Each structure stands twice: as structure tokens, then as C-alpha cells.
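User: Can you predict the 3D structure for this chain?
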Amino acid sequence: MAMATTLLGAVPALAQERWPQRPVRIVVPYSPGASTDHVSRKMAQELSPRLGQTFIVENKTGAMGTIGMTEVARARPDGYTFLGMDSGITILPHLVRSTPFDVARDFIPIGAYVFSPLGIVVNATSPFRTLQELLQKGRSEPGTITFGSGGIGTSPHLATEDLASRVDVTLMHIPFRGAAEAVQALVSGTIDMQIASPATVLGNLGPGGRLRMLAIGSDHRLDRLPDVPTFAEAGVSDFFLRNWIGLFAPRGTPQDITGRLAQEITAAMQSPEMKSYAESIAAEPQAAVGEELTTLLAAENDRWKAVIQRIGLEPQ
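Assistant: Here is the predicted structure, written as C-alpha cells:
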């Protein structure tokens, strides 16, 4: 009996050590094809063999991502439901007055990965060959240059407004229902410019492409886009832009599970396959976990809060 009691008492610990024992969901609050969706699926493919279970990505879109985020916040914290989100998670609290969750309270940051500098893109037939030509037109004819984004409050929208305020240019925002729609509008010539991640426009860049990138928000030129200058080289100093994808757990998820995932994410981003993947989409193959991730989230939160206040965007 004593032995039986000892063995039964060990069952929960053993079960926890064997996590995961069934497929794991990663809820992405954006539409299929978006960079967050694409990168999350790639990471899910990498985590599946590492942890011995299938990681499945499910898209739950709507309401600036709050529908999918609400589902994860309300999920059982048992290690079988996670949130695949981008840097927009640090923007949302400053734009939405009321949500069924609190970002800081209800989500546990696990890891951020695949850091992608954003760049300014125009149509290949655009008269703007350089960033300075575009900005000069914006100054001489305020409000005549249109820019698209995947919606009000998205990081490309706020980044463009931030740039405009820094260089004293007035631009006209045309919001779309997603980044893919904005890219199509740029390709068709409906809008003049867009700030986008290279992953969403790479197929249209280069010789014979329908788009042209004028500057990239990195501190160095990218190997994948060697002819694209940094913002500093294009005449705008101290302007850096990058998006990243992250994995978050609902509050209460056991630390041994989140810690294991953080380790596997770090290892995954050091693998030749993930390094090659990141470089193929003009992104940086790095991961931020632990204290580095905490610092990153705090800095992003402060940056976007200041931008939102400076441009006068009121929370809805």
C-alpha cells in the first residue's frame, strides 16, 4: 500500500514531465498569409519534432486581434494552447480602451523570434527613386502622398505616422483589412507607398519586380537586399523599424512548460534550417527569451505609447 501510494503520488509529476501528450494549438489572431501566420507555421513545424507532438496553427481573426487573444487568455493553462503574436501586442493596450483580457496580466511571454526590419516600398513605376524624393513631395504638397497599412493601429501604420512626424511630412493614410490587401493596392498603383516587412513584398522586388524598396529600418544593409539603403543612409537618422513574432502562454501555464518552450525556441533559431528560413525572408535569425525578452517588451511598449500620444491617436 505504501508503495502504491508513492507511485500514485508520482503520477502528476511524471505526466507533467512527459508534456506534451497531445497536439498543441498556436492561435494566431491574424489572417492566413500574414507574416505572423507564416512565421508561426514555420516555428510550429520546427517545434513538432523537437517535442514529439504536432503543433497546429489556428487563425482566429477580427477586432484588431482581440478575438484570438481572448480565446487564448480564457484557455486552460495546461500547455496545449498558446498565442502566436507579433510586436503589435505592445501596441494594443494603448489603442483599445477595454478588452476581456489584460496583456500584462493574462499572458506569459515565452520567446520572440525572426526579427524582420521593415522598409518603405513604392510601386516600381513610381516617380520616387529615393526616400528623399518622396519626402520632398510630401513637404511641398502636404496630404497628397497616400500610404496603406493593414489597419489603423497596426505597427506599419504607426511607424509611418512616426516617420512623418519626425521629418515634418503630412501623408494620407488608407487603411485596409490586412497587410496583403495593402500590398495589392500598392502593386496596382492605388496607393503611393507602404511600410512593410520584406517577407510580404520580396516576390515583387528586384529586376522586373512590381515594387521598389527605398529604405530599410535596420542598422545595416541586408544580404538579401544589398541595394536597399538603411534609413540613415537615406537621410533619416535614428529611425529603426523591426517586427518580430512571439509565443505567449495563458496565465497560470506551468513554468516548466514555458521554460521548455523557451529553450526549444532558442535552439530552433540556432538551427541551420531556421537560420536559412529567416535569411530567405530578409529577417534576422535570432531569439529573445527571459530577461532579454522582458527588456524588449518594455522598450517596445514605451516606444509605441509615445508614438500614439505624439500623433494624437485616441484609444477606441
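The first helix runs from residue 2 to 17. The first strand starts at residue 24 and ends at 28.
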